[in-house]
Structures are given as structure tokens and as C-alpha cells.
Amino acid sequence: MRLTILTLAHDLHYSQPGSLLNLTGIYTGLTSPVFPFTLPRLLLVARFTGSPVDYGREFQVMVSFTDQNGLPGPIPTDQRRLLMTTGQSGEDVHCIYTLEAFDVTFHQPGRYQF
After folding, report:
1. Cβ-proximal residues to 43 (8 Å cutoff; 6+ apart), any chain
2. How far, in Å, CA of 33 to CA of 31, rounded?
3. Over the chain (114 residues), what is each successive 10-residue block's mean pLDDT?
4. Which of 20, 41, 64, 89 could disulfide-link 16, Cβ–Cβ 3.0 to 4.6 Å?
5. DSSP secondary-structure letter at 29?
6. What is the DSSP string of 43-104?
């Protein structure tokens, strides 16, 4: 299994269920001239891809948001189970993980990461 998409986006939606993921507003970075800075909505999107034998496989994902010192950031850690179910017979399979956070406040500048 491999991580094939990992990005911050403004929104996502599916068309042609199971075969077309549409991401809009992909961030390349966030900046602010003043702090604290509150972001009304933040959406982390990750797509995991596996081989056809991974179809139906369940796995656990844990996502943490930290500052440049490795300390917890303004988004709590999220943990869930995902199921590899998207894909056609004999093709790679996928699952999508999303983490949506509202009113995320950054109290100081720095490098934050998931």
C-alpha cells in the first residue's frame, strides 16, 4: 500500500462514484501578517492505493498535527479504520481519508505539519 495523494484543499467532491475525486483549492502554504490567525476551514485529503489483492483490506490510520518542535498543533489527533474498496476487478484499489477542521487558530508563526 502507498500514499498517492496528501494535500490540504478547500473542498472535495466525487463524481462518477468511486472513480473521480475532485479537489478544489489546493493549498501550497498558509501565511498571515498577524497572529493569532484563524482559518475557518481546513481539509486534509489523503488517498491510499493498494494492489488488487488489498481489496477489502481494513487498516488503521492515525493523523497528528504538530508544530516545528513536534508539539501538538491546533488540530486534535484523529484515528480511524479505513477499508480498501474503490477500484475495478484486477485493478489497483483505493480509499480516501479526509480530516475536516473548523476555526483552526494558529497562535504563532511556524512550520506545522501532519
Report:
1. 8, 9, 10, 11, 12, 98, 99, 100, 101
2. 7
3. 91 76 87 91 93 91 91 92 82 91 92 89
4. 20
5. -
6. EEEEEEEE-GGGTT-EEEEEE--B-TTS-B-SS--EEEEEE--BS-TTS-EEEEEEEEEEEE
Question: Which three-class secondary structure state does DSSP give residue 26?
Answer: coil
- Phi then psi for residue 28, to 5 deg, are -105, -10
What pLDDT is recorded for position 68? 87
d(CA 78, CA 44): 11
Check: CB of residue 65 under 8 Å from CB of residue 105: no
Q: Which cell is 59 given?
A: 487498516
DSSP letter at 19 equals T
